[in-house]
UniProtKB/TrEMBL annotation:
Its main location: endoplasmic reticulum. This is Metallophosphoesterase 1. The keyword Transcription regulation does not apply. It is found in: Endoplasmic reticulum-Golgi intermediate compartment membrane. Signal peptide: none annotated. It comes from Corythaixoides concolor.
Length: 398
């Protein structure tokens, strides 16, 4: 009889332990699934495409087909084999992959622009390392046939001007079909793609080629804006393009003294805002910036490189948006830009990704709760209810 009773007690204890273990596994799994998967849906679901003001005058059907939905991000900085620790790679690339794939699924953009510094070590990576980095990028940033991906070159992809070679530029162009001075026209909207690393102005081979393409493209665009005039022989044989004022896409920002005038929660930290920018390193030179403004007279300029957000007006009327880094390695609060664009107007909206500090706080709170539950289960920590009950019973006994 005693043997039977002992067996029953042991069986009950085993069931309780298994039940408790199952609860712990469910708790840990739920926290992991939320922090590593669901949180991206929760955060990005709140983002909405901005409305274009000019679209109010058009019919509903016409508006939906004429507005281009563009997603813009920058500075993913996929780590390479030299400086990249495997755990850092795993964490950052998972975060960016989940954010990007979730955004594509929820927002369904027509086109995605990545404004340079796709890789962190493209400037010095070997052919084998480059191929591996490209393979990882294509896995992380895969996209459906309904979406177009356009990648602009940055200094970390081919090196700063003194590191840039024709081989590195060609290597990048082969993978991403990138060409400096390329015009991309979608739904009557002109996008001009610039290799800003080649805007050094010193006459290097890559610089000469890039500038010649930009000048030729500028001529085409300017001729397309003019009314048909048979007396203008310079434009008589030029291919006509949509008359829409172009949007400039590049990695380096146009020249500005610093980020002192930038504001917002994802602008540069206060201690960095007043640090002067170096021409041809942090921003384009004054001369190169002036050239691009003269050549294209853009209605909007989109750039990256600084890893922080900023909005400035050039010549008092042309806005430039510096898009912050998409990687948590560079920011606690990465984001991307959502743009609704028509041939005559545009509207931009920022979509923030989960704050890493908040994810870390959730993990810490869950870890603390897990420790308390385990200690309470093994009776090393008296649950508050029983502790209070014990105090009350002692007082009654007295």
């Amino acid at each position: 009889m005693l043997s039977f009773s002992s067996t029953t007690v042991k069986s009950l204890l085993l069931k309780r332990r298994l039940c408790f273990l199952l609860k712990l596994v469910c708790f840990v799994s739920s926290v992991l699934i939320f922090c590593e998967f669901l949180i991206y849906y929760v955060i990005i679901f709140r983002c909405r495409w901005p409305e274009v003001k000019g679209g109010a005058h058009m019919g509903e059907k016409e508006t939906s087909t004429s507005v281009l939905k563009a997603m813009i991000l920058a500075d993913t900085h996929l780590l390479g084999e030299i400086k990249g620790h495997w755990l850092d790679k795993l964490r950052r690339e998972w975060q960016m992959e989940r954010s990007f794939q979730t955004a594509l699924w929820l927002l369904q953009p027509d086109i995605v622009f990545i404004l340079g510094d796709v890789f962190d070590e493209g400037k010095w990576s070997s052919p084998q390392a480059w191929a591996e980095d490209v393979r990882r990028f294509q896995k992380m940033f895969k996209y459906p046939v309904s979406t177009e991906l356009v990648v602009i070159v940055g200094n970390h992809d081919i090196g700063f001007h003194y590191e840039m070679t024709t081989y590195k530029v060609n290597r990048f162009e082969k993978v991403f079909n990138f060409t400096s001075g390329k015009l991309l026209t979608r739904k009557g909207i002109n996008f001009v793609i610039v290799n800003s690393v080649a805007m050094e102005g010193d006459g290097c081979a890559v610089c000469r080629t890039a500038e010649a393409k930009l000048v030729a493209l500028s001529h085409k665009l300017n001729c397309s804006r003019q009314k048909l005039d048979h007396s203008n022989k310079r434009c008589s044989d030029v291919e006509k393009l949509p008359a829409s004022e172009p949007i400039l896409l590049q990695h380096y920002p146009l020249y500005r003294k610093s980020d002192a005038e930038c504001s917002g929660e994802d602008s540069a930290p206060p201690e960095e805002k007043n640090i002067p920018f170096r021409e041809k390193y942090d921003v384009l030179s004054r001369e190169a910036s002036q050239k691009l403004m003269w050549w294209f007279r853009p209605r909007l300029i989109l750039s990256g490189h600084t890893h922080s957000a900023c909005e400035v007006l050039h010549a008092g009327k042309i806005p430039e948006i510096s898009v912050p880094s998409f990687s948590w390695r560079n920011r606690n609060n990465p984001s991307f830009i959502m743009g609704s664009v028509t041939p005559t107007d545009f509207s931009l909206q920022k979509c923030f990704l989960p704050y890493e500090s908040r994810v870390f706080t959730i993990y810490c709170a869950a870890g603390a709760l897990l420790v308390i539950l385990i200690l309470a289960h093994v009776q090393l920590l008296t649950p508050p209810f029983y502790f209070a009950q014990h105090l009350i019973s002692k007082r009654k006994a007295v």
